[in-house]
Amino acid sequence: MLSRRMFTGCAICAAIGFVADDASAQTPSGIKRAITSRIDGPAEGYETLQVMVDIEPNFVLDWHTHPGTEAGYTLEGAGELRIKGQATQMIKPGFSWVTAPETPHTLKNGSQTTKLFVTFTVQKGKPLSTPVPAPT
User: Whole-structure pTM over 0.85, yes or no?
Assistant: First the structure.
């Protein structure tokens, strides 16, 4: 059964453009996204997407994974990034991160809107994000 938390995670992932085959996914409240670039590669069977993301104050992006690498850069705002196996990191303007393929991670936004620039290099045809339970 799909819990409310998992449903929220699914909706958020779709909002950021996490369905690699559907750039026009509807955006739920709490997050806005704009795919600024989408190209094939760097290898056969992969594609690279660049996405501008706005996250509303106090919004939580639930635990999820990607079928490829996620590289992000914080333009504005602040929040708490948790990546499985790593210490919690506080994001702020100028902070960047890289998440390895299939690595669970979550983001809890701070008290103001956060703007991110995120690059995904993922396997074509796979969902860009999959909600997962919080790691133990």
Answer: no
